[in-house]
Every structure is written in C-alpha cells, then in structure tokens.
C-alpha cells in the first residue's frame, strides 16, 4: 500500500501542477502544442503537393526519389547538431528559429524547375524539419519533468492533428490553387503561428523540475529525473524502439492504400481510407496517452502497445477482406500511438537535448527505411507478406521495452 499511496500522491501533485496552479507552465504547454501542430501541418501540406511538384519539374520517378533525399539529408544532419545547439542557446530559441526555417522554406519547392534545384531547396526544408523536431521535443521533455505528468503523447497528438488538417486542406485546394500559391499560403500561416506562439515561448521561463527529494525516496516521476548526461547505449536502444514505430508509420503512409487496392481489390476511395483510419487511430491513442500512462506506467504501456500493434498489423496484412484489414489498421494505430513519444521522452530524461537528438535521428531513420524496405520485400515475396514486417518490428519494440524495465526512467 505505501507504493500505491506514493503513486496517488505523485499523480495528485502532477494534476495540480498541470491543472494550472502555475499559469506560466500552462502558457508554455499551449505554446509547445501550437509548435507541434504547425510542424505536422506544414509537413503534411508539402507531402500532398509532391505529385504536382514532380510534374512541374519534369523529373522521372528515380530523379524525384533522389531529390526527396534532400529532406532526409537535411533532417539527419541537422538533428545531429541541434542537440548541442539547444544546450548552448536553449530549447526555446532554437525551436522558434527552426520553425521559422521550416515554415519559410516550404514555399521554395514550387519554384524549382529541375530535380537538382528541388533537391537543393529541400535541404533547407529538411533542416528546418529536423531541427524543429529535436528542439520542440527537448522543450517538451523539460515541461513534462516540471509538470510531473506524462503529457508527451498529447504533444504528439497535436502533431498528428496538424498533419491531418494540413493533408485535408491540401487535398481540398489542390484542384483550385497552384502549388506555388498553396505552399506560399502554407508558409504564411506557419510563420504567423510561429511568431504568435514564439512570443509566448520565448517569454516563458525554462521549467525547472522539482528536486528528487520532493518526490519521495525512489521516486519514479518525470520531475525527479536526474540531470542530463552523455548519450549512452540506452539512449540508442530507445531510438531503436522509436525506429520500430516510425518504420510502421512510414510503411503504412506509402503502402496501405496499394495493399487494399491491389491485394484486396478495394475501390480507389475505399483504398484511400486505409491510411486515414490508421492516422485517426494514432491521434485518438495519443490523446488518451496520458491517461493510459498514468494507469499502466510507461513500461507496461509500451509492451502492450507493441503487442497490440503486432496483432493488428498481422490482421491488416493477412485479412481476406477489406473490412477486416481496415480494422487491423485501426488496431495498429492504437498500438503504435504512444511508443515513439514515450521513447523520445525517456531519451530526453536520460541525456537532455542530445539524448532527444540521438534517439530522434535513429527513430526517423526507421520512417525513411520503412517504405523502401517494404518495396523490396514486396518484390521478393508479396505486398501482404512485406507488411508483416511492421508486425515483426512492433513485437521487437515490445520485447525491447520489457527488457529495459527498470533501466529507463518512467514518467508515470
């Protein structure tokens, strides 16, 4: 019973803090939520205009693929540097600067008239995206520590919601606005949100987590985390957990519709619903993530999430009908929802911004690898068999999370 009472006391203390006892923390939480949302909004708005930009540049499929590597290259290089930059300048200024770069640079691709120029301008876009993700996640880790509540999934839910709005709006205006006008408007919205939210972010003091002694002996709350140390093997392993999740996200973004269309002979409209229901399920899972983590703890939530995702993806891959496959995509989204934010949060609790940078770099590598790996596996076997690799890696994430029990900080 003492441990239960300690858990209740910690939860009540975190609830009081998160509920608004300190208005500065509440203001900071709103500002960070806005940055996560604009990150997803701008990125998704660009993604839906890739076909139009391809047609404009006259690039072949292979040339476009090489040009799109500019996003990946810019993001990976910047992620490796942003952790140190955050330690030197602070998470908040770097977040604002990266958001401005991300928002402004999204207007550049429509003005590229060759694959080479497109790849060059996408380096800037990728740099903004990579820097933004490391800096804003690092700032969120500090706030989670100060609140004493595992609210990281809520921030990533804002990213998912922003992405859904960005993709939906892009689809609606694609027939009436050119890529240049659409992405320029996207840039303007991103800059305006960054300026407004950035004023609040820069005005807010850096949150200071409560001392470990305040949390009780052997406390396991986020606010009692140790000071950030060097990046070690544990941070890299947490990055692998994030990569297993991101692999599934990237694979389903590119291949879910094709699986429903070609394997299960769904109509084009119904096939397009595959990724939509998956993304919606991930958003719902992240919105309920704090509630789940408070009741299960991070280790059990991650093990359960990986296991559920593995079962859901096996159903989606091997289902004999479209309806069952869509159910599988929903289950997969619910299972994967909180693995990435929890892994990144734990890496930040262990090693600060450099931990977030290292885990993010490994994690987003999974998103880049997923679509490519599925393509090769589909050519060697079948698309249905290839998609079972998502289930396998989800199970690997669950096993790693169980093996790390007691080693990684538990914010719940």
How is this structure best described in words?
By secondary structure, this protein is mainly α. It has helices spanning 2-21, 23-47, 50-57, 61-89, 91-105, 115-147, 152-173, 179-203, 233-263, 268-287, 289-296, 298-318, 322-336, 339-380, 383-403. Helix 2 (23-47) runs parallel beside helix 5 (91-105) and helix 4 (61-89) packs parallel to helix 6. It is globular and about 55 Å long.
Q: How would you sum up this structure in a few lines?
A:
It contains 15 helices and no strands.
Blueprint (SSEs and pairs):
Layout: H1 2-21, H2 23-47, H3 50-57, H4 61-89, H5 91-105, H6 115-147, H7 152-173, H8 179-203, H9 233-263, H10 268-287, H11 289-296, H12 298-318, H13 322-336, H14 339-380, H15 383-403
Helix pairs in contact: 1-2, 2-5, 2-6, 2-7, 2-8, 4-5, 4-6, 4-14, 5-6, 5-8, 6-14, 7-10, 9-10, 9-14, 9-15, 10-13, 11-12, 12-13, 12-15, 14-15
